[in-house]
Design a protein that fits this description.
InterPro entries: Dockerin_1_rpt, Dockerin_dom, Dockerin_dom_sf, Ig-like_fold, PA_dom_sf, PA_domain, Peptidase_S8/S53_dom, Peptidase_S8/S53_dom_sf. The chain is α+β, with helices and mostly antiparallel strands. It is about 15% helix and about 35% strand. It folds into seven domains: about 30-65 and about 805-925, Immunoglobulin-like (Sandwich), CATH 2.60.40; about 80-175, Alpha-Beta Plaits (2-Layer Sandwich), CATH 3.30.70; about 195-405 and about 550-660, 3-Layer(aba) Sandwich (Rossmann fold), CATH 3.40.50; about 405-545, Glucose Oxidase, domain 1, CATH 3.50.30.30; about 690-800, Immunoglobulin-like (Sandwich); about 930-1045, Immunoglobulin-like (Sandwich), CATH 2.60.40; about 1300-1380, no CATH class. Strands 2, 39, 41, 42, 44, 45, 46 and 47 form an eight-stranded mixed sheet that branches. Strands 17-18-23-21-20-19-24 form a seven-stranded mixed β-barrel. Strands 10-11-9-13-15-16-25 form a seven-stranded parallel sheet, sandwiched between helices.
Length: about 1400
């Protein structure tokens, strides 16, 4: 038996208790896991046919929404607020359409394809204008037109007009204009002004770029587009290469970066330190990597990969490096129109979807002949982290790796502690060899080396020792420099990591800085603490890093939907030195480019490196198409320094020299999905990888074949041996040979000069193979020259489809929102699930377990976030569901319904990337009934009295407890694993917060001991009993005091429940104030305050026991207000007897009066006691009164009205005095009786005096100029032990609907008659026609009639048919007569 004590392991929230006590989330009963191929359920049938807009609406239900295809989940399609959208038209752009037709064997001329695009645009403009005939309908703005890489427009339009756009014959799809950001550098700390040698020297040297330059491959004549934050085209290394571009942020021809001057002009957002997060430099860094010409008069001048290429920069990302889908697509479109050969996109969204709008535009650009090189993203190192548009099938997607580097090393000495140190950073002017000839004082800096940590420390000329943590490495070094330190030693705070994984190089903000392990740092710290402070340096050396390591930050594949190998290639992207704008390091003189360089890391850097190489390849062979460039770069790539999955490194690290000089190209014929005419269709592509995609187990052996084309552009005949190299145990990949999985290819192939040959490579998977990833490389080796090798990565994702598991955290949940404030109540059901195969969409559906009917959706989840084989936690149910309807155009009701008590199935229905449905379910009970039994017994307790006295030697006091819930029997009856231990008895050990729970046996019983706290005057321990559904039975409180402690307790003369009284209207209760452990009392005073609204003091009398001891009573009452009474009670003893021990002293009789509102407890709950002894010693003993709960005999409701004309965009009410609105709110009971109440100035109504019943009520809101609303509710009561009593119910929007504006004549329809009423009362203050209550009937009121014209109220069954004309007069006629434009 454990002991209840303050040092027990305490649960701080109910959620933690719920999870820890539910049999470790093991399956609680029969789990239904079904793959549905035939006989679809109602829910599956409805969900399978959802339109994109309907899926978008469902995503709003999700608690962890992410952006998806079509519209962002935050778009409110009922709002008149404007939103930015991307509208895709039916026809493909000209070049892509012609190519597509050719692939299909169809004939389509360039002229006709162009005409089709133009027709889409003209049709849409005409249809768009038709939707905005009047000013009251709002306005629109076509922000961009796309015709080359994407056919459509960027549009700003009221959200409530978006659905209407789909009616145009030109429109196929609409997407949200999403936010896209630059792929930010990832290093923990970057120097403000630093470099390590000449710009990109290490990368160019390691990969033979300089050698290619010497051979004449410099990119001359090739046009390169950079889509980024802009460029500082004045940079000496860039200006001669820069040829033009466009700024899609500011819509001009000047693609300059966001400058320091721009920040000042904008009002210095972020304050004095805000410039760093506002200005941009990324595009200049990227541009320098591609076309840097090394012309700057600086030791750090940067020569890029293709210095003679023509640079065109399209600024698509503005301040802070953020931009929109609209601008990205516009720039891709413009790059195609401008005849670019290669485009670089070091940007993206962290969302793995190859069918994102930007990805579609990228695919079309490639089909139009532009090589698109895109960053994979910096969200690694998890699988499936590749972003968008990096997931575009036709993009060349790039991951990041490093190159070898040389890092200076030294040894440090302090007494007997010797440290191996690596240089971390140094100033441009530092000569670290001078450190060898001196001995320095060393100072340990407390904390983490922030400025405040140097207070009262003199470190001038000394070496400082600092721990890594929180602040950046840069700041630690800078603070040491500012304080005058000669050098800084920074040791790792992570003992498992070794050295810090950084090398910052040179910078103006640096001093000699060294990198130490955790062990060496702590050893030095210990020496300093013991008084050793003389530090010296020795053994200057150099450490060479190996290089060719995949960067940890580099995003991994595969892509969703098609499971293609992404990234296709890796390139240097770690600590790359390149150009930045002059204002970055010289804001006051942006023309100073001496130190206009920085070292950055990211796939953003690997991408321009690859773009540069692609540019050289295009120069070397201008006839190469994008698929050729991709394939050649992949064919010739080298392995990294250690094995990586093909879904991490693709074909490997780029080898520019081999790529340029290769005469061999190996292409794989693949098919991949893209959007054509608004539908997902497969297109054929050539690439450099064997992506066999996602293969589903079907009970049979599987096979798949790809056609591989080998091209020999050289004169010499070559024979290649072909070998399949399997990889296993890399990121979970399986052992192919052991599982019988094979990739079969010919053993050799001979290619004559200037020829091509096709061969087949087949994948075979036996049905017995383990599920998972199978991968490797097909390697082609020149028989006569084994150094010449080419390789093609292959990969397949073999899965068993469906869900693996679903575990609900509990088998029952309460939907009784009247208990929200009850201890331990939780309205949320949590669960975990695991997928066998990926699901694109996942829906939580509530099903009636008795009838099998699918009732509705309770939540929706974006499947992109969920990987197979990983357990995820979700909230599938929160008590409400959105009912299915029989209307296919509106398949689910937007108004949630609260689930009633009963037996249900909680289903998860998933749809995979091919829209195949899978289902898994568990039983769930909605239980709104409290446990039928709960009690706690403490050794020594007296009936109805919470006080327990304990002896000084008592360390603990035993307790027993029990709880029972009848629903357990129902669970057992259907085969669920259930017993009474699933209930909870929580305890609050001298705390307002829950501190633990008792351990229950299968019968719901518990034994334990409570630890006493003799240092406390009173130990307060409370116990709460709830069932698994978290229905609250009650709370029992105990007050533990040391034996002999004086205290007063007011005990009732009626039966108690858990030491509390439950009283009803009319009940009389006498509470006896008993003084305990008295010693020679002379006088006692009691005073208390009560409210006549809930409690009447009937009588205050001297208890007979006190009277026997010579007590005399004096009572004084004071009316503090019309409803508040203060009672002062004096009991004086005549001294004839010793007044000691336990004395019942005063009997207070109260009565619960008729109530004018719902009151939960009596105001007689607190008494102040003062005792005076015969020795005139005054004490104030602890005093407690039995809690008296009031079970009201009436109920009330409170809520807000929601007239449309007074609603803000967020659903809140505008600020007016609603008491003058003329609104009436009525509640009607089941017998037709009406109840009215009051309205306050904020629009909140209160209606009381409702009968206590389980029958339904109707709340009616009648607001001038609006539809009358009717809402049902049936929970205006509460229950205890089966007895129902009054409750004050708050009505929300689930009950009180928004009242649609425009119904002037209150006939439940908005038609010509309402317009006529506006005309009749035009210019007056007629209340019924002054919809917006501004004192005048005018065009603002008419706008509501026009907006909701011809609507019928759905709240009534007999709304008349709306009239469009009156005596030939139409709405348009009335507008003309009123002069409304």
């Amino acid at each position: 038996m454990r002991k209840l004590a303050p040092n027990s392991k305490m649960s701080k929230s109910f959620a933690a208790i719920a999870l820890s006590s539910s049999v470790v989330l093991a399956p609680l009963g029969p789990v239904t896991n079904v793959t549905k191929a035939e006989s679809l359920s109602k829910a599956e049938t409805i969900l399978a046919n959802l339109s994109p807009a309907q899926r978008q609406a469902l995503e709003k239900l999700s608690t962890n929404d992410q952006s998806g295809l079509f519209l962002d989940s935050n778009v409110n399609l009922e709002s008149s607020s404007k939103v930015s959208v991307i509208v895709q038209f039916k026809n493909k752009p000209q070049k892509a359409a012609v190519l597509e037709a050719a692939v299909k064997g169809e004939s389509l001329s360039n002229e006709q394809a162009k005409a089709n695009v133009e027709l889409d645009h003209s049709t849409f403009k005409k249809d768009l204008a038709a939707n905005f005939k009047t000013k009251s309908e709002g306005s629109f703005k076509i922000k961009r037109q796309y015709k080359d890489a994407f056919n459509g427009v960027a549009l700003e339009v009221p959200a409530n007009k978006v659905k209407d756009l789909l009616k145009s014959d030109a429109v196929q799809a609409i997407y949200s204009d999403s936010t896209v950001k630059v792929e930010e550098p990832t290093s923990e700390a970057q120097p403000s002004k630093e470099a390590q040698g000449q710009g990109m020297a290490a990368e160019r040297s390691y990969l033979n770029i300089d050698k290619l330059h010497d051979e004449g491959y410099t990119g001359k004549g090739v046009k390169v587009a950079v889509l980024d934050t802009g460029v500082d085209y004045n940079h000496p290394d860039i200006k001669d290469a820069f040829k033009g571009g466009y700024d899609f942020v500011d819509n001009d021809n000047d693609p300059m970066e966001t400058t320091y001057a721009d920040w000042i002009k904008a009002g210095k957002p972020g304050g004095s330190t805000g410039a760093a997060s506002y200005v941009t430099e990324h595009g200049t860094h990227v541009s320098g990597m591609i076309v840097g010409q090394g012309k700057n008069n600086s030791n750090y001048a940067t020569t890029g990969i293709a210095p003679d290429a023509d640079l065109y920069v399209y600024r698509v990302l503005g301040p802070g490096g953020s931009g929109t889908t609209e601008n990205i697509i516009a720039a891709i479109d413009q790059a195609v129109a401008d005849g670019m050969d290669v485009m670089n996109l070091s940007l993206g969204a962290n969302y793995n979807d190859p069918l994102f709008p930007e990805a579609i535009a990228i695919n079309n650009a490639v089909l139009s002949g532009v090589t698109a090189v895109v960053a994979a993203g910096n969200s690694g190192n998890g699988m499936y982290t590749v972003g968008s548009p990096g997931g575009a099938a036709l993009a060349l997607t790039v991951g990041a790796s490093d190159v070898p580097s040389q890092i200076p090393t030294m040894k440090g000495h302090l007494d007997t502690a010797n440290s191996d140190m690596r240089l971390l950073a140094k100033n441009f002017s530092d000569d670290i060899s001078t450190l060898l000839s001196n001995t320095y004082d060393i100072v340990n800096i407390p904390g983490i080396g922030q400025a405040s940590n140097y207070n009262n420390l003199n470190v001038t000329g000394k070496v400082v020792l600092v721990a890594r943590g929180t602040s950046t490495i840069n700041d630690k070094i800078l603070q040491a420099k500012l304080k005058g330190a000669a050098a800084i030693l920074i040791y790792n705070n992570n003992p498992d990591e070794g050295y810090l994984p950084y090398y910052l190089g040179e910078g103006t903000d640096f001093i000699p800085s060294f990198n130490l392990t955790n062990a060496d740092g702590l050893a030095l710290q210990q020496k300093i603490t013991s008084g050793n402070t003389k530090f010296s340096f020795s053994d200057l050396g150099q450490l060479s890093t190996k290089g060719d390591n995949l960067a940890d930050f580099s995003s991994r594949g595969p892509t969703r939907v098609n499971y293609e190998i992404k990234p296709e290639i890796t390139a240097p992207g770690v600590s790359v030195l390149s150009t930045v704008p002059g204002f970055i390091h010289s804001p006051n003189d942006p023309t100073n480019y001496q130190y206009a360089y920085e070292r950055m890391s990211g796939t953003s850097m690997a991408t321009p490196f690859t773009t540069g190489v692609a540019t050289l390849l295009k120069q070397a062979n201008p006839d190469l198409q994008p698929e050729d460039i991709k394939s050649i770069l992949m064919n010739t790539a080298d392995s990294l320094s250690q094995p990586y999955s093909v879904f991490e490194e693709g074909a490997g690290r780029i080898n520019p020299y081999n790529a340029i000089h290769s005469t061999i190209e190996i292409k794989v014929k693949e098919s991949t999905p893209t959007i054509i005419n608004g539908e997902v269709e497969q297109i054929n592509i050539d690439t450099g990888a064997l992506s066999f995609g996602n293969k589903a187990y079907n009970g049979s052996d599987l096979s798949d074949t790809r056609t591989v084309t080998l091209l020999n552009r050289g004169e010499k005949t070559k024979t290649f041996n072909i070998q399949v190299n399997y990889q296993s145990n890399i990121r979970g990949s399986k052992v192919a040979v052991a599982n019988g999985v094979t990739v079969q290819a010919p053993t050799s192939v001979t290619l004559k000069g200037v020829s091509q040959k096709k061969l087949n490579i087949a994948l075979n998977i036996p049905k017995t193979a383990d599920k998972g990833i199978y991968e490797g490389y097909v390697v082609f080796t020149n028989k006569d020259n084994p150094i010449e090798t080419y390789r093609i990565p292959f990969g397949v994702h073999y899965v068993e489809q469906g869900f693996q598991s679903l575990n609900l955290s509990r088998q029952s949940i309460s939907t009784d929102r009247n208990n929200l404030s009850a201890p331990l109540y939780s309205p949320y059901l949590t669960a975990n699930f695991t997928l066998k195969s990926h699901m694109r969409y996942i829906y939580a559906v509530l099903t009636d377990a008795t009838t099998g009917e699918d009732l509705g959706i309770s939540n929706a989840f974006d499947g992109v976030a969920y990987n197979e084989g990983v357990q995820y936690n979700i909230q599938p149910f929160m008590g409400y569901y959105y009912p299915f309807t029989t209307d296919s155009s509106s398949p689910f009701d937007n108004k949630p319904v609260k689930a009633k008590e009963g037996h249900y199935k909680m289903k998860l229905i998933g749809y995979d990337d091919n829209d195949k449905a899978f289902t898994i379910a568990q039983d769930l009970f909605v239980d709104n009934t409290m446990p039928n039994q709960f009690d706690v017994q403490v050794q020594g307790e007296k009936p109805g009295n919470p006080f327990i006295e304990y002896k000084p030697e008592q360390k603990t006091i035993p307790i027993t407890a029990s709880i029972n819930d009848k629903i357990v029997d129902q669970m057992k009856a259907i085969g669920l694993k259930a017993d009474q231990s699933q209930n909870y008895i929580g305890y609050y050990y001298n705390s307002f917060y829950l501190t633990g729970k008792l351990s229950l046996d299968e019968n719901g019983k518990a034994k334990d001991e409570i630890a006493m706290q003799p240092n406390l005057s009173v130990l307060n321990v409370r116990f709460a009993g709830v069932d698994q559904a978290t229905n609250f039975n009650g709370m029992k409180q105990y007050l533990f005091v040391k034996e002999g402690t004086p205290y007063v307790y007011g005990q009732a003369n009626v039966a108690t429940r858990l030491n509390q009284v439950n009283a009803q209207v009319g009940d009389k209760i006498t509470v006896t104030l008993t003084a305990n452990n008295l010693a020679k009392l002379q006088k006692a005073n009691y005073n208390f305050t009560t409210s006549t609204l809930d409690t009447n003091i009937v009588n205050i009398a001297l208890n007979p026991e006190a009277k026997k001891l010579g007590g005399q009573l004096n009572v004084t009452t004071t009316n503090l207000s019309s409803t508040t009474v203060k009672s002062n009670v004096d009991v004086t003893f005549d001294g004839t007897q010793d007044v000691s021990g336990d004395i019942p002293m005063v009997d207070v009789t109260i009565k619960i009066p008729e109530l004018n509102d719902v009151y939960n407890y009596s105001s007689f709950y607190s008494v102040n006691s003062t005792f005076t002894s015969v020795d005139n010693v005054v004490t104030k003993p602890l005093t407690a009164i039995v809690p008296i709960n009031i079970l009201s005999n009436t109920s009330s409701v409170i809520g807000y009205i929601h007239p449309e004309s007074f609603n803000n965009a967020d659903g809140t009410l505008k600020y007016i005095d609603y008491t003058k609105l003329g609104a009436n709110v009525t509640v009607v009971d089941s017998k037709g009786k009406k109840y009215t109440g009051t309205m306050d100035s904020r629009g909140q109504f209160t209606i009381g005096g409702l009968p206590v019943t389980k029958d339904a009520f109707t709340v009616v809101t009648d607001i001038p100029g609006h539809f009358t609303t009717y809402g049902k509710f049936d929970t205006a009561y509460n229950t205890i032990d089966g007895f129902i009593y009054g409750y004050k119910l708050r009505l929300g929007t689930e009950t009180v609907d928004t009242a649609t504006a425009g119904d002037i004549n209150k006939d439940n329809v908005i038609d010509i008659n309402d317009a006529l009423a506006i005309e009749t009362y035009w210019g007056t203050n007629k209340r019924s026609a002054d919809i917006n209550f501004d004192g005048t009937v005018d065009a603002k009121d008419f706008a509501y009639v026009e907006k909701n014209y011809l609507l019928q109220s759905t709240a009534v069954d007999n709304a008349p048919k709306p009239a469009k004309k009156y005596k030939g007069k139409t709405l348009a006629d009335i507008k003309i007569e009123l002069g409304i434009q």
